[in-house]
Amino acid sequence: MTGAGEHADLAAFAATAAHAVRACAALAPPAQARLLAEAGLLGILAPEAAGGLGLDLHHAVPVIAAAAAGLLGFPLAETMLLAAALADHPAGPALAAGTMTATIAWAGMAARSGGRLHGPVGRAPAAAGCDAVLVRLAEGAALVRLDAPGVTLRDGLGIDVDAPEFDVVLDGAAPVAEIGAGACARLDADALVLRTAAIMGSAETCLAMAAEHTAARRQFGRRLVAFQALRHAMARQKLAVESLRGALARCLDLAPEDELEALPARQAAFAAAARLGPAAIESALQLHGGMGFTWDLPLHRHLRRVRSVEAQGDAPGIHAAIAAALLDTNA
Q1: With CB atoms 3.0 to 4.6 Å apart as the test, which of 18, 50, 151, 242 could cross-link to 87 if both were Cys?
Q2: What angle, rounded to 10 degrees, do the helices at 76-85 and 57-69 form?
C-alpha cells in the first residue's frame, strides 16, 4: 500500500508530466524527447546505472495517465519500457536521455534468416518520428533502426490522429539490439499496466469535461446537471473509472514475481479498461450533444486513442486468455 508521503510523490510526478505534455504540444519528436528526458520521465523504469530513476510502475502510472489526458503524441510508454528492457545495451541509456527515440510494433512477428529480419509487423505508434522500433521474434524481440537498409515504414490502419500507427516491413534488416523471451514477457506484462493507466487518464479527462459542460449548459430553462437521468449517467461512468483505479492499485500491489496472481491481475485490469474506458468516453460524447463529435473538442480524439491502445494490447486475446485460465482453474 502507498502512504501519504508516496501519494504526494506520485502527485508531483503527475504534475510534472502534465506540465511537460503541455510544453511538448508544439515540438517535433526529437525536441519532445529531450524535454521529457529533462523532466526525468523517459527513464522512470530504467535502472540508475543506465541513466534512469530506478523506480517502479507506481511512479509510471500517474505519468502515463497525465500523458493520455494531454493526448501526447510521443510514444512515452514505449520509451519507458524500452529504456528499462535495453538497460544493458547503449540504446537503453540513450532512450532514457532522450538522444534516441524508439517505439514498439505491437502486432505481428518478424522472421529471422541468416541473422537478418524479414516480414511485416504493425501497430507501431508514432513510428514516423522515431529512430528505431522493437519488433517481435519467436525467441524474444529485436531493435531495428528505421533508417537502416531493408526497413520500410508505411501508414497503418490505426485511428489515433495524435499518435498514428505505422506498419514496418523488414527485408533483410539487421538488428542493433535484442532482448530474450523472459525480458519480452516482462515488457508485455508492464505494458498492460501502462495501457490501463492511459485509458483511465483519457476517461477521467472526458468525464471531467462532461461534468463541466452539464453544469454550465442550459436546456428548457434548467442546467443540464439538474436532470436526474444525466446525473445518474455520469455517476455510473464515474463509478466505472474508480473501479479501474482500484484494479490498477491491486495489480500494482502484487509482486511481479508472483506469477499466479500478478499477471492475471494485470490482464484483468486491462480487460476492464478496454471495456469501461471507451464506454465512459462515449457517454461524455453523448452528454455534449452534437458538438461532442466535432473537432472543436478533443473527446473523439480520446476515443480514438483508447481504441488504439485497446487494439495494441490485443484486448480480445486478453479476454480469451482470462477465460481459458478460469476454465482451467475450475476444471
Answers
A1: 50
A2: 160
Edge-to-edge order in the sheet of strand 116-125: 111-113, 116-125, 165-173, 151-155
Q: What distance in Å separates the CA atoms of residue 305 and residue 318, rounded to the nearest whole number?
A: 19
pLDDT at residue 1 in the model: 47
Q: What is the C-alpha to C-alpha distance for residues 45 and 77, in angstroms, rounded to an integer?
A: 10
CA angle 105/109/110 to nearest 5° reads: 100
pLDDT at residue 331, as a whole number: 64
In terms of DSSP bridges, do strands 102-104 and 132-137 run parallel, antiparallel, or are they unpaired?
Answer: parallel
Grid cell, residue 144, equals: 531495428
Query: Rounded to whole angstroms, how far apart are CA atoms 219 and 230?
Result: 12
Number of neighbouring beta carbons within 10 Å of residue 262:
18
Residues in the chain predicted with pLDDT less than 50, given as ranges, are 1
pTM (two decimals): 0.93
Collapsed DSSP state (helix, strand, coil) of residue 278: helix
CB atoms within 10 A of CB 176: 16
pLDDT for position 2: 54
Cα-Cα-Cα-Cα torsion 28, 199, 252, 183, nearest 10 degrees, comes to: -60
> CA of 160: how far to CAs of 16, 134, 157, in Å?
24, 20, 9
Q: What is the pLDDT of residues 264-292, one digit of tens each?
A: 999 999 999 999 999 999 999 988 888 88
Helices (H), 224-261: 228-253
